[in-house]
Write a structure and sequence with these properties.
Blueprint lengths: L6 H7 L5 E10 L5 H8 L5 E8 L7 E7 L2 H9 L3 E3 L2 E11 L4
Antiparallel strand pairs: 1-3, 1-5, 2-3, 4-5
Length: 102
């Protein structure tokens, strides 16, 4: 579950839940892989998860989720946009998700 909220509301949510911080990326080139996306975002901080999935209902549209080790790293990556990944401008949204113990 990924939640897109303004920063002031993320602070309130973090009082009740431990949160993971990341980016949700759309309009990703269909030939880009997870390693490429993780390497693209590495200058902004420690990428702990990078997942790419096909968009529901479309075999060409791909979505990515990139999780960072800290909130500050995710914020920095978000603010550094616009992002051109593999030469294609992608839409990037800052998200949080409750940590899941595994």
């Amino acid at each position: 579950m990924y939640i897109e909220l303004p920063k002031k509301y993320r602070a309130v949510l973090s009082k009740f839940y431990d949160l993971d911080h990341g980016l949700f990326i759309t309009d990703l080139d269909p030939y880009i892989n997870e390693d490429y996306v993780a390497a693209y975002f590495k200058p902004f901080g420690c990428v702990t998860v990078c997942q790419i999935k096909n968009s529901p209902g479309s075999s060409k549209d791909r979505l990515a989720y990139v999780r960072f080790s800290t909130e500050a790293e995710a914020d920095l990556a978000d603010w550094a946009g616009p992002h051109f990944i593999g030469g294609t401008e992608c839409k990037v949204r800052r998200v949080v998700s409750p940590k899941v113990e595994g």
